[in-house]
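User: C-alpha coordinates for Thioredoxin-disulfide reductase, please.
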Amino acid sequence: MSQDFDALVIGGGPAGLTGALYLARFRRRVRLVDDGCSRATRIPRSHNMPGYPDGVRGGELVAAIRLQATRYGVDFASGRVTALEREGTRFSARLADGSTTHARAVLLATGVTDVEPPMPYLAEAVRSGALRYCPVCDGYEVSGQTVGVLADGDAGAREALYLRGFTARLHVFPLSDTVEISARERQRLRDADIMLAEHAVASLRLADGGVVVRHGDYETRCDSVYSALGTRIQADLAPDAERDEQGYLLTDRHHMTSIGGLYAAGDVVQGLNQISVATGGAAIAAAAIHRALGPAWA
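Assistant: Done. Predicted C-alpha coordinates:
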Protein backbone atom coordinates (compact mmCIF):
# COMPACT_ATOMS: atom_id res chain seq x y z
CA MET A 1 0.00 0.00 0.00
CA SER A 2 1.40 3.40 -0.98
CA GLN A 3 0.16 6.93 -0.30
CA ASP A 4 1.37 10.36 -1.47
CA PHE A 5 1.67 13.52 0.64
CA ASP A 6 3.16 16.98 0.31
CA ALA A 7 5.28 16.43 3.39
CA LEU A 8 6.17 13.57 5.70
CA VAL A 9 7.12 14.16 9.33
CA ILE A 10 8.97 11.35 11.11
CA GLY A 11 8.73 11.56 14.89
CA GLY A 12 5.85 12.43 17.20
CA GLY A 13 7.56 14.52 19.88
CA PRO A 14 7.23 18.31 20.28
CA ALA A 15 9.34 19.04 17.18
CA GLY A 16 7.53 16.64 14.87
CA LEU A 17 4.09 17.64 16.10
CA THR A 18 4.85 21.35 15.76
CA GLY A 19 6.17 20.87 12.24
CA ALA A 20 3.09 18.88 11.25
CA LEU A 21 0.77 21.46 12.84
CA TYR A 22 2.37 24.32 10.89
CA LEU A 23 2.31 22.40 7.62
CA ALA A 24 -1.35 21.49 8.07
CA ARG A 25 -2.21 25.12 8.76
CA PHE A 26 -0.37 25.99 5.55
CA ARG A 27 -3.00 23.77 3.90
CA ARG A 28 -0.47 21.10 3.04
CA ARG A 29 -1.28 17.40 2.97
CA VAL A 30 0.97 16.05 5.69
CA ARG A 31 1.47 12.68 7.32
CA LEU A 32 3.21 12.16 10.66
CA VAL A 33 4.64 8.74 11.50
CA ASP A 34 5.13 8.12 15.21
CA ASP A 35 6.41 5.04 17.01
CA GLY A 36 5.15 6.29 20.39
CA CYS A 37 8.63 6.57 21.92
CA SER A 38 9.02 10.33 22.25
CA ARG A 39 11.63 11.16 24.88
CA ALA A 40 9.48 14.11 25.96
CA THR A 41 6.75 11.82 27.29
CA ARG A 42 9.15 10.67 30.02
CA ILE A 43 9.47 14.16 31.53
CA PRO A 44 7.80 14.08 34.97
CA ARG A 45 7.14 17.82 34.90
CA SER A 46 8.82 20.61 32.96
CA HIS A 47 9.07 23.98 34.70
CA ASN A 48 10.94 25.87 31.97
CA MET A 49 8.34 25.48 29.24
CA PRO A 50 6.90 28.99 28.67
CA GLY A 51 3.20 29.38 29.40
CA TYR A 52 2.97 26.80 32.20
CA PRO A 53 3.58 28.58 35.52
CA ASP A 54 2.93 25.36 37.47
CA GLY A 55 4.89 23.19 35.06
CA VAL A 56 3.57 20.60 32.63
CA ARG A 57 4.02 16.86 32.35
CA GLY A 58 5.76 15.80 29.18
CA GLY A 59 3.02 13.38 28.21
CA GLU A 60 0.35 16.04 28.69
CA LEU A 61 2.23 18.53 26.53
CA VAL A 62 2.73 16.01 23.71
CA ALA A 63 -0.94 14.98 23.87
CA ALA A 64 -2.09 18.62 23.70
CA ILE A 65 0.02 19.42 20.61
CA ARG A 66 -1.13 16.18 18.98
CA LEU A 67 -4.79 17.07 19.56
CA GLN A 68 -4.16 20.51 18.10
CA ALA A 69 -2.51 19.03 15.01
CA THR A 70 -5.34 16.52 14.61
CA ARG A 71 -7.88 19.34 14.43
CA TYR A 72 -6.10 20.75 11.37
CA GLY A 73 -6.14 17.47 9.48
CA VAL A 74 -2.71 15.95 10.06
CA ASP A 75 -2.74 12.30 8.96
CA PHE A 76 -1.25 10.21 11.78
CA ALA A 77 0.29 6.78 11.22
CA SER A 78 1.52 4.59 14.05
CA GLY A 79 4.71 2.68 13.45
CA ARG A 80 8.39 2.98 12.69
CA VAL A 81 10.02 4.10 9.46
CA THR A 82 12.66 1.53 8.59
CA ALA A 83 14.02 3.08 5.39
CA LEU A 84 13.97 6.48 3.70
CA GLU A 85 15.09 6.97 0.11
CA ARG A 86 15.12 9.78 -2.41
CA GLU A 87 13.35 8.83 -5.66
CA GLY A 88 13.62 11.65 -8.19
CA THR A 89 11.66 14.62 -6.87
CA ARG A 90 10.12 12.80 -3.91
CA PHE A 91 11.03 10.65 -0.95
CA SER A 92 9.89 7.10 -0.27
CA ALA A 93 9.52 5.97 3.33
CA ARG A 94 9.01 2.31 4.13
CA LEU A 95 7.34 1.40 7.43
CA ALA A 96 7.85 -1.72 9.49
CA ASP A 97 4.36 -2.94 8.55
CA GLY A 98 5.37 -3.01 4.88
CA SER A 99 3.45 0.09 3.80
CA THR A 100 5.09 2.95 1.91
CA THR A 101 4.58 6.70 2.12
CA HIS A 102 5.73 9.09 -0.61
CA ALA A 103 6.28 12.80 0.00
CA ARG A 104 7.92 15.75 -1.74
CA ALA A 105 9.64 16.86 1.47
CA VAL A 106 10.54 15.20 4.76
CA LEU A 107 11.03 16.59 8.27
CA LEU A 108 13.12 14.33 10.50
CA ALA A 109 12.24 14.80 14.16
CA THR A 110 13.54 11.48 15.44
CA GLY A 111 15.36 12.90 18.45
CA VAL A 112 17.75 11.05 20.72
CA THR A 113 17.57 8.33 23.35
CA ASP A 114 19.33 8.50 26.71
CA VAL A 115 22.09 6.08 27.60
CA GLU A 116 20.59 4.65 30.77
CA PRO A 117 22.57 3.75 33.89
CA PRO A 118 22.44 0.24 35.38
CA MET A 119 19.77 1.05 37.93
CA PRO A 120 16.78 -0.99 39.11
CA TYR A 121 13.30 0.54 38.91
CA LEU A 122 14.66 3.07 36.45
CA ALA A 123 11.27 4.30 35.20
CA GLU A 124 10.13 4.90 38.77
CA ALA A 125 13.36 6.77 39.52
CA VAL A 126 12.77 9.09 36.55
CA ARG A 127 9.14 9.72 37.51
CA SER A 128 10.08 10.64 41.07
CA GLY A 129 13.03 12.85 40.11
CA ALA A 130 15.53 10.57 41.82
CA LEU A 131 17.19 10.03 38.43
CA ARG A 132 17.60 12.99 36.08
CA TYR A 133 19.13 13.51 32.66
CA CYS A 134 19.07 17.23 31.90
CA PRO A 135 20.51 19.87 34.27
CA VAL A 136 19.50 22.60 31.81
CA CYS A 137 15.90 21.40 32.20
CA ASP A 138 15.72 20.88 35.93
CA GLY A 139 18.89 22.04 37.67
CA TYR A 140 16.75 24.59 39.51
CA GLU A 141 14.74 21.77 41.08
CA VAL A 142 17.82 20.36 42.86
CA SER A 143 18.93 23.69 44.33
CA GLY A 144 20.68 23.11 47.65
CA GLN A 145 20.26 19.34 47.50
CA THR A 146 22.80 16.53 47.63
CA VAL A 147 23.34 15.52 44.02
CA GLY A 148 25.39 12.81 42.38
CA VAL A 149 26.62 12.70 38.79
CA LEU A 150 27.22 9.34 37.14
CA ALA A 151 30.24 9.80 34.90
CA ASP A 152 31.95 7.84 32.15
CA GLY A 153 34.57 10.50 31.46
CA ASP A 154 35.27 14.21 31.48
CA ALA A 155 31.73 15.02 30.35
CA GLY A 156 30.49 13.90 33.77
CA ALA A 157 32.91 16.25 35.50
CA ARG A 158 31.75 19.14 33.32
CA GLU A 159 28.12 18.36 34.11
CA ALA A 160 28.89 18.47 37.83
CA LEU A 161 30.60 21.84 37.37
CA TYR A 162 27.48 23.11 35.57
CA LEU A 163 25.33 21.93 38.49
CA ARG A 164 27.62 23.78 40.92
CA GLY A 165 25.56 26.88 40.14
CA PHE A 166 22.57 25.21 41.81
CA THR A 167 24.09 23.33 44.74
CA ALA A 168 27.38 22.98 46.60
CA ARG A 169 26.66 19.39 47.68
CA LEU A 170 27.93 17.50 44.67
CA HIS A 171 29.55 14.11 44.10
CA VAL A 172 30.95 12.63 40.90
CA PHE A 173 30.77 8.84 40.68
CA PRO A 174 32.78 7.03 37.95
CA LEU A 175 30.53 4.36 36.51
CA SER A 176 33.29 1.78 36.11
CA ASP A 177 36.93 1.15 36.97
CA THR A 178 37.93 2.02 33.40
CA VAL A 179 36.52 5.57 33.54
CA GLU A 180 39.23 8.22 33.29
CA ILE A 181 38.84 11.81 34.47
CA SER A 182 41.61 14.05 33.17
CA ALA A 183 43.97 15.88 35.51
CA ARG A 184 42.51 19.20 34.32
CA GLU A 185 38.95 18.23 35.20
CA ARG A 186 40.03 16.73 38.52
CA GLN A 187 41.60 20.05 39.45
CA ARG A 188 38.49 21.95 38.40
CA LEU A 189 36.39 19.65 40.60
CA ARG A 190 38.70 20.28 43.57
CA ASP A 191 38.58 24.02 43.00
CA ALA A 192 34.77 23.88 43.06
CA ASP A 193 34.70 21.65 46.20
CA ILE A 194 33.03 18.83 44.28
CA MET A 195 33.77 15.36 45.64
CA LEU A 196 35.13 12.77 43.20
CA ALA A 197 34.63 9.20 44.38
CA GLU A 198 37.81 7.08 44.45
CA HIS A 199 35.99 3.88 43.57
CA ALA A 200 33.56 3.05 40.79
CA VAL A 201 29.84 2.63 41.31
CA ALA A 202 29.07 -0.83 42.66
CA SER A 203 25.30 -0.40 42.88
CA LEU A 204 22.48 2.13 42.77
CA ARG A 205 19.26 1.75 44.70
CA LEU A 206 16.21 3.85 45.45
CA ALA A 207 15.73 4.71 49.12
CA ASP A 208 13.38 7.17 50.83
CA GLY A 209 12.79 9.20 47.68
CA GLY A 210 16.48 9.45 46.84
CA VAL A 211 19.29 7.24 45.57
CA VAL A 212 21.95 5.39 47.57
CA VAL A 213 25.18 5.03 45.61
CA ARG A 214 27.52 2.28 46.74
CA HIS A 215 31.16 2.89 45.71
CA GLY A 216 33.88 0.69 47.12
CA ASP A 217 33.25 0.25 50.84
CA TYR A 218 31.23 3.47 51.02
CA GLU A 219 27.64 4.45 50.50
CA THR A 220 26.46 7.99 49.69
CA ARG A 221 22.82 9.00 49.75
CA CYS A 222 21.81 11.59 47.16
CA ASP A 223 18.52 13.39 46.76
CA SER A 224 18.98 12.98 42.99
CA VAL A 225 21.55 11.58 40.61
CA TYR A 226 22.20 12.82 37.08
CA SER A 227 23.17 10.41 34.36
CA ALA A 228 25.93 12.06 32.32
CA LEU A 229 26.33 9.05 30.04
CA GLY A 230 25.25 10.83 26.88
CA THR A 231 22.63 10.06 24.24
CA ARG A 232 22.21 8.02 21.07
CA ILE A 233 21.30 10.25 18.14
CA GLN A 234 18.51 8.78 16.02
CA ALA A 235 19.76 9.85 12.61
CA ASP A 236 20.08 6.46 10.91
CA LEU A 237 17.40 7.34 8.35
CA ALA A 238 19.74 9.97 6.90
CA PRO A 239 23.07 8.13 6.59
CA ASP A 240 24.31 10.40 3.79
CA ALA A 241 23.46 13.70 5.48
CA GLU A 242 26.29 15.72 6.99
CA ARG A 243 26.78 15.44 10.76
CA ASP A 244 28.98 16.99 13.39
CA GLU A 245 31.63 15.08 15.34
CA GLN A 246 29.02 13.90 17.84
CA GLY A 247 26.64 12.60 15.20
CA TYR A 248 24.04 15.39 15.23
CA LEU A 249 22.59 16.35 11.86
CA LEU A 250 23.89 19.63 10.48
CA THR A 251 21.34 21.97 8.96
CA ASP A 252 21.26 25.41 7.37
CA ARG A 253 19.34 28.37 8.80
CA HIS A 254 16.13 26.95 7.32
CA HIS A 255 16.75 23.59 9.04
CA MET A 256 17.44 21.79 5.77
CA THR A 257 20.10 19.09 5.90
CA SER A 258 22.79 18.65 3.26
CA ILE A 259 20.22 16.59 1.31
CA GLY A 260 17.78 18.74 -0.66
CA GLY A 261 14.20 18.42 0.56
CA LEU A 262 15.22 16.70 3.78
CA TYR A 263 14.80 18.88 6.86
CA ALA A 264 15.48 18.15 10.53
CA ALA A 265 14.45 19.68 13.85
CA GLY A 266 14.54 18.83 17.53
CA ASP A 267 17.18 16.89 19.44
CA VAL A 268 18.47 15.11 16.30
CA VAL A 269 19.92 18.47 15.23
CA GLN A 270 23.07 20.07 16.60
CA GLY A 271 22.21 22.48 19.41
CA LEU A 272 20.54 22.80 22.78
CA ASN A 273 18.23 19.87 23.54
CA GLN A 274 15.21 21.79 24.82
CA ILE A 275 11.50 21.61 23.97
CA SER A 276 11.30 25.32 23.16
CA VAL A 277 14.28 25.01 20.82
CA ALA A 278 12.75 21.93 19.18
CA THR A 279 9.40 23.58 18.51
CA GLY A 280 11.06 26.75 17.25
CA GLY A 281 13.27 24.82 14.86
CA ALA A 282 10.29 22.83 13.60
CA ALA A 283 8.36 26.02 12.90
CA ILE A 284 11.29 27.35 10.86
CA ALA A 285 11.58 24.05 8.97
CA ALA A 286 7.85 23.89 8.24
CA ALA A 287 7.80 27.44 6.87
CA ALA A 288 10.78 26.62 4.65
CA ILE A 289 9.15 23.41 3.41
CA HIS A 290 5.97 25.31 2.59
CA ARG A 291 7.92 27.82 0.51
CA ALA A 292 9.97 25.15 -1.23
CA LEU A 293 6.86 23.17 -2.22
CA GLY A 294 5.56 26.13 -4.19
CA PRO A 295 2.02 27.52 -4.32
CA ALA A 296 -0.45 25.39 -2.42
CA TRP A 297 -3.08 25.98 -5.11
CA ALA A 298 -0.90 24.84 -7.99
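User: Anything notable?

Assistant: Residues 211 and 222 are 5 Å apart (CA to CA).
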